[in-house]
Amino acid sequence: MKTANLLLALEDDVLRHDVVCRLENSERHCSFDEQNPSDWRGLLNRVSQHRPEILLIELSAIKADLANSLRAIKKSAPQTKIVALHSSDDPKTILAAMRAGANEFIHPPFEETFEAAIERVINSNTEEQRPERRGKVVGFLSAKGGCGATTLACHIAADLKLQTGQNVLLADLDLSSGMVGFLMKIESQYSVLDAISNLGRLDESLWKALVSEWKPGVGVIPGPDAFSYDSAPARDELRHLVRFMRTQHDWVVLDLGRSFTEVTAALYQELDDLLLVSVLEVTALHGLKAIAQKLRDRGEDMSKLQLILNRTPKMMDMTHEDLQKILGRPLYAMLPNDYPSLYQAYSTGTLLPANNRLAQQFSVLTTKLAGIEAPKPQRKFSLFR
Ligand SMILES: Nc1ncnc2c1ncn2[C@@H]1O[C@H](COP(=O)(O)OP(=O)(O)OP(=O)(O)O)[C@@H](O)[C@H]1O
Ligand SMILES: [Mg+2]
Question: Tell me: the pLDDT tens digits for 303-346?
Fold first, then answer.
């Protein structure tokens, strides 16, 4: 049987004695402490430091405004459930207590109300403690400008939905020159910066209003149209936003822009994978090595850093192994060069068609990322398809 820890804030001796006896004789064996509510500041401190699961508080001991007082308690310990005790079941008092934020209201005779109320509060706590849905977060970062991070983020986000059937969010955290909204043809008045300015009141319904639907199951939140470094979000805010995103979606795909910025520094620990995209050019490979070194110097977990070589030429003057030696790490994927198809897709406002060779390589990458089995190649002349 689940137990709970309680804080009793009861002034009236008879009431106190009755409650203590009930708790001591209860089958639940709840642990409890006491704090005199006449010392209101002391009570608030106690609640905020110890964060009891349940606060049993005598309403008549609250001398100041009831709503403000209970709100102050909720603010000090948002998870604490408040059970209000009163000498009578006066409807006006009950209503005022519930409106002020009390979770339960009990009154004598306690035989009828006490155990049932504690039971309900404990059960509701168990419900709320179910783990939140935790989606996976994958970031795409260009080793230097123009390597293909945005192209990959858009295609892989769409492909994750296709291959897993799960709910995907594509978010543009390239704050200074994000192109996700443009490539996905999203016309939204809201950007990630609006989400950041509303962090305090972000919930499911506000989030739905901020995110645009690209196709069912793929939400997009673009970068801002205009950005100044004065309005750059703080590291904490970025982390808070991404943590919230992963409670709302199975997959969160982030376009992190190019090179090692404040955004990547803030978010690396939140990511499940960082896909660092380079091309076979000296400056890009130098950028890639520099970013990997920076992460190593910071003592970050290198197992989630995945290197991708994009726009790989058909003929390379070095082998795959040579390249891995230069980079000091294995390559996660090598993607072919197909500028004309991308150009055509983008100019007609779509992504690559599924039968395109580059699109098929994107799918292989998605399969690897999602840890799912690659689809078996279809035989051309099968009777049973
Ligand atoms: N595999 C590829 N083959 C050919 N062209 C590609 C490939 N991947 C991306 N491109 C092209 O390269 C250009 C840059 O791509 P993209 O915008 O995705 O890069 P980025 O890393 O996001 O750049 P930025 O630093 O500007 O954000 C685009 O014109 C895109 O169509
Ligand atoms: Mg980009």
Answer: 999 999 999 988 777 777 878 887 888 899 999 999 999 999 99
- 310 Cα to the center of ligand 2, angstroms: 13
| DSSP H or E stretch at residue 322 | helix 320-327
Neighbours of 17 (CB within 10 A): 11
Residue 11 has pLDDT above 60, yes or no: yes
Q: Is 256 in the pocket of ligand 1 (CB under 6 A)?
A: no
Q: What is the pLDDT of residues 188-210, one digit of tens each?
A: 999 999 999 998 888 999 999 99
Q: Is 147 in the pocket of ligand 1 (CB under 6 A)?
A: yes
Separation between Cα atoms, residue 358 and residue 311, nearest integer Å: 9
Among 342, 344, 360, 363, which residue has the most ligand 1 atoms within 8 Å of its CB, making it the best to mutate?
A: 342
- What is the C-alpha to C-alpha distance for residues 350 and 169, in angstroms, rounded to an integer? 18
CATH class of 136-370: alpha beta
Mean pLDDT of the chain, nearest integer: 89
Residue spans of the domains in the chain: they are: 5-128, 136-370
With a 6 Å cutoff on the Cβ, whether 311 touches ligand 1 is: yes
| Tokens 């205009």 found at | 226
pLDDT digits (tens, 9 = 90+) for 270-307: 999 999 999 999 999 999 999 999 999 999 999 999 99
CATH for 5-128, options being 3.40.50.1260, 3.60.9.10, 3.40.50.2300, 3.30.420.10: 3.40.50.2300
Question: Counting beta carbons within 10 angstroms of the beta carbon of residue 52, is it exposed (0 to 12), middle (13 to 18) or buried (19 or more)?
Answer: buried
Atom 13 of ligand 1: nearest residue by CA position? 146
Alpha carbon distance 182, 336 (integer Å) = 23
